[in-house]
Amino acid sequence: MEFDFKKLDVNLSDRSYPIYIGGNILHKADMWWPGTKAQKAFIVTDENTGDLYAERLQIILPIESIIYKVPAGEKSKSFTEYEEILEWMISHGLNRHSLVIALGGGVVGDLAGFVSATAMRGVKFIQIPTTLLSQVDSSVGGKTGINSKQGKNLIGAFYQPQVVVIDTTTLKTLPQREMKAGYAEIVKYGLLGNSRFFEWLESNGARVIAGEDDALIYAIETSCAMKAEIVRQDEFEETGLRALLNLGHTFAHALETYCKYDGRLLHGEAVGIGLVLASRLSARLEYISQEEAERVKAHLMSVDMMSEIKDISGIDATAEKLLELMRKDKKANSAGLVFVLLNKLGRAKLDNDVPEEKILEVLKESIA
Fold first, then answer.
1. Which of the residues 81, 178, 185, 308 is marked catalytic?
2. Cβ distance 86 to 122 under 8 Å?
3. Neighbours of 187 (CB within 10 A)
4. pLDDT tens digits along 281-312
5. Residue 355 sits in which domain range?
6. What is the tens place of the pLDDT at every residue in 123-134?
7. Is 84 considered catalytic here?
8. Looking at 69, 77, 143, 330, which residue is catalytic?
9. What total number of domains does the chain contain?
10. Does the pTM exceed 0.85?
11. What single DSSP character describes residue 303?
């Protein structure tokens, strides 16, 4: 049987690793399995993904493995789950040569990656993302972590995987809501650095969400290639380039924190709203035209995605409360909030001098 796949490289000197993208490649372990002295693998997954793929993965791995399942959802990115996984691994023979495999979406990848970064002062791990959002964003680049009661992703580490295995057939079982949530991150890449890609998405976004193979693989490959290049240039967010990947996220993280990760707002849904608000704020500051800002909202609406705060079920937030939460965002500094805004569709920049009255105007318009 022929396996058609794409291979990208994240070039980070001695921390470089490959990304494999294609259908049915999960079962081709001899292609992607990294060189390792590990004699045991610890598979961390969630209850949904684990039931579908964990035992299948065990069969094809060349070493012994055991499985740990966390509850599905953002609430698993917690100190409680972090501690329980670590204690489970230690009690089952964890050592410096052990291997961790993150099998699931962004929550599993972030959590298992942080466990890997801190267990025994660092053990190797593999990312096998099974949601569109994790395939195009969170599995690549080495950001790992958990949430604090004060906000999202405030506790974590930069820690690169050995390999990222993106099997697009795992998306066949993904609900449409999850596909749309992941699609928001794809749109982000077009807006922050590739206007032609955004134009392509305007014509082909529905095909990506529908899971049409050619459109889906092109969108994933383009997104991963963009992120890999940004990470190569600014792995630890020292120059400001990597921070551009947070387009829409200052708004998004405040919305998620306000909703307390209760299931009514997925991360990608919050990012979609955040992209609209960031483009609208860019227009208010006269960085882009109102017409350009409207294109962002129009595209998300064309694929039936949320685009305003008022679209969130049961939302009762005030602009002032959301602004208060935004001030706790990890991208804030002593000078105040830092926003990723648009110079034009396809080019983003950092701005740490945004008047708060402009932020409040944008929030109030989206709530009304």
1. 185
2. no
3. 28
4. 999 999 999 999 999 999 999 999 999 999 99
5. 176-367
6. 999 999 999 999
7. no
8. 143
9. 2
10. yes
11. T
